């Protein structure tokens, strides 16, 4: 089985957890860009609760454009802002020093296309967590996989910022600022990485669809 999702940057914990359960991650590479997703944003813990970091796109050019042609804007220094925010919020986390230099390397490259940035970020996460998870991309767009592609679980546009987390079981782990806000589920995989390091796999294996 494979979990099919839209292109995501530093995906939320649930995406990786479900992909591990299916055994393969399949990235939709033939869709058109849509707003309101994790395609160009991800959420991290902060002193105020959560902060969403967005990759700015060239305005007026990307709506309904093929996802592989969506271009990133460098009119502002968003890379420095992302790194500063990550360092401010996770600088004292247990595994920050182990992984932050690798994250910095991703941000040191001026990717032209969002798809390429996201793929590089996902490959890095897979490497750092030793996921042993095959990651592939679609070669054609298919709107419905339910009839003749039972080996694919279609989760496109389901794991979004508006996801109802009550439908899923999230294994808790110590988070930065948890003393202020309690445990916040389904943040970016970066949150789990910095807080749990190699033990992240334990958390991922115990996260998934809630048994009702």
SSE arrangement:
Blueprint: E1 2-6, H1 13-22, E2 25-28, E3 41-46, E4 49-54, H2 78-90, H3 96-107, H4 114-128, E5 135-137, E6 152-154, E7 168-169, H5 178-181, H6 189-196, H7 200-205, E8 208-209
Parallel strand pairs: 1-2, 1-6, 2-5
Antiparallel strand pairs: 3-4, 7-8
Structure description:
The chain is an alpha/beta fold and 212 residues long. The chain is built from seven helices and eight strands. The protein has a four-stranded parallel sheet with strand order 5-2-1-6, covered by helices on one side. The protein has a two-stranded antiparallel sheet with strand order 3-4. Strands 7-8 form a two-stranded antiparallel sheet. It has helices at 13-22, 78-90, 96-107, 114-128, 178-181, 189-196, 200-205; strands at residues 2-6, 25-28, 41-46, 49-54, 135-137, 152-154, 168-169, 208-209. The longest helix is centred in the middle third of the chain and has 15 residues, at 114-128.
Structure summary, number of beta strands:
8
What is the element string, with H for helices and E for strands? EHEEEHHHEEEHHHE
Sheet with most strands: 4 strands, parallel
Low-confidence stretches: none
Characterize the overall form: globular
Ends apart, CA distance between termini: 22 Å
Rg over CA atoms: 17 Å
Beta-strand share of residues: 5-15%
How much helical structure, as a percent, in the residues?
Answer: 25-40%
The strands making up the biggest β-sheet line up spatially as 5-2-1-6
Averaged pLDDT: 94
- Determine the number of helices (DSSP H or I, runs of at least 4 residues): 7
Structural category is: alpha/beta
Oligomer: single chain
What is the domain total for the residues? 1
């Amino acid at each position: 089985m494979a979990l099919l999702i839209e292109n995501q940057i530093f995906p939320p914990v649930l995406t990786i957890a479900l992909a591990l359960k299916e055994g393969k991650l399949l990235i939709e590479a033939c869709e058109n860009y849509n707003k309101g997703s994790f395609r160009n944003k991800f959420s991290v813990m902060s002193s105020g609760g959560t902060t969403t970091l967005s990759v700015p796109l060239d305005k007026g050019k990307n709506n309904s454009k093929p996802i592989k042609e969506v271009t990133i804007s460098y009119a502002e220094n968003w890379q420095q802002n992302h790194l500063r925010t990550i360092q401010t919020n996770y600088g004292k986390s247990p595994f920050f020093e182990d992984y932050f230099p690798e994250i910095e390397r991703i941000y040191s490259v001026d990717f032209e296309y969002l798809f390429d940035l996201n793929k590089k970020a996902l490959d890095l996460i897979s490497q750092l967590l030793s996921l042993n998870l095959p990651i592939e991309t679609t070669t054609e767009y298919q709107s419905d996989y339910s009839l003749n592609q039972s080996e694919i679980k279609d989760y496109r546009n389901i794991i979004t910022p508006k996801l109802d987390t009550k439908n899923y079981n999230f294994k808790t782990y110590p988070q930065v600022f948890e003393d202020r806000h309690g445990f916040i589920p389904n943040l970016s995989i970066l949150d789990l990485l910095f807080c749990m390091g190699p033990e992240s796999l334990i958390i991922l294996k115990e996260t998934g669809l809630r048994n009702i």
